[in-house]
Amino acid sequence: MAGAGAVNDRAARVLAALLVRGGTLAVAESLTGGLLAAELTSVPGASRTFRGSVTAYATDLKRDVLGVDPVLLEQRGAVDPEVARQMAAGVRRVLGAGWGAATTGVAGPDPQDGQPVGTVYVAVVGPEGAGKVSALRLNGDRADIRKESVRSVLALLLGELSGNRRAQDTEQNGGY
User: How far is residue 17's CA from residue 30's CA, in Å, rounded to a whole number?
Assistant: First the structure.
């Protein structure tokens, strides 16, 4: 797994790419519980492009604050690729940003919504409104899974900002 410096470097590169594009970013976090926002705001000058975040840990907040479809949540639960995409789209809308990113998944210690520990979905939605979701199967303890989720969503976002439309890199812990 990449070290903290590598994650911070990736956050700095995301913010620099947004600045060049004149873009802004908002994030919606579930399993990462604010780690993504903390990583972004640790970069000097982040306020030029980072609008803010919503930590929607509870399922009802995903529905009520971010606008995730309640039928989707009822049928599939919160750990789902479409939930991640709707979270990213919702935070983009709610916080008035050009780009939205989201994390949802199971960090452990127990399975959730029928999904095993290490099941994570990260999503990015850009100004065009489309979106990209990556499904991750991560190994390690709770802290490892949360950190790797942050690294992965930053990689996905950086790929989208740089115009790279392929799936995010596959160096991730656990592979997929």
Answer: 25
